[in-house]
Amino acid sequence: MDFVNANILIMNKLQRVSNMYDNEIRVPLAEDLNVPIYTYVHPYAEELNKRVMKEVEGMTFPMTNKTNVKAQMTDWRTNSPSIETIITWIHSEVYSFFQHSHPRDFKIDMKESWIARYNKGDRAIKHNHAAAWLSYVYFVNCPKGSSPLIFGGGKKVNAEEGKVVVFPAFIDHEVPENKCDNRVVLAGNMLSSYS
Fold it and tell me: How many CB atoms lie within 10 A of CB 122?
């Protein structure tokens, strides 16, 4: 069984337990196949995002325009005290969801994290993160004109500060041309394992 089909089976299994969550969005990938993506809002986003924005001022962006992100981008292992707080929260939300359908020895590894800062005219080309299990985008700063995150099949998730979008890494996604300066997101990938 190939990687994509294995992920689809996992996502279909999750459909049985996902009805208890109000934060589910369905992404149509093919006829009769809708894959869930999830959104959560950080309870202390306003204060936390202010701290992240101060930390971003001191960061370098060595991956700018070198990836599918055609915007300013830090390296793949970006971290700071505030980013660590966000990553820990995302891990907790994802783990609490998946613990209902996975054995006790199930583990989630928050593999990579990076900051992308989009200015007017910047975008992200359609791509996926198929080498990972799940991916996420956390919206740090979203001025008026911030572009949405768009998934294959055309499903759009608006950029809203404090919201994280968690989705199967094999799903294509993109950011259309941004219409403002300083749209900032924290993005990353997760792997799963059993001990």
Answer: 23
Tokens 């799940």 identify what position?
134
- Cβ atoms < 10 Å from Cβ of 189: 19
Q: How many CB atoms lie within 10 A of CB 176?
A: 12
Nearest-CA neighbor of 118 among 59, 23, 185, 171?
185
Instruction: Say whether pTM exceeds 0.90.
Output: no
CATH code of the domain containing 80: 2.60.120.620
Please tell me the predicted confidence (pLDDT) of residue 153.
Answer: 79
Computed over every residue of the chain, the mean pLDDT equals 85
The number of folded domains in the chain is: 1
| pLDDT tens readout for residues 2-36 | 444 444 444 444 443 333 345 556 655 544 457 78
Cα–Cα distance for residue pair 126/175, rounded to 1 Å: 8
Q: Look-up: residue for tokens 């994280």?
A: 164
The C-alpha angle 191, 105, 102, rounded to 5 degrees, equals: 75
* Full domain range(s) for residue 27: 3-194
Distance in angstroms (rounded) separating the CA atoms of residues 102 and 82? 29
Rounded Cα distance, 103 and 138, in Å: 28
For 138, phi and psi rounded to 5 degrees? -110, 125
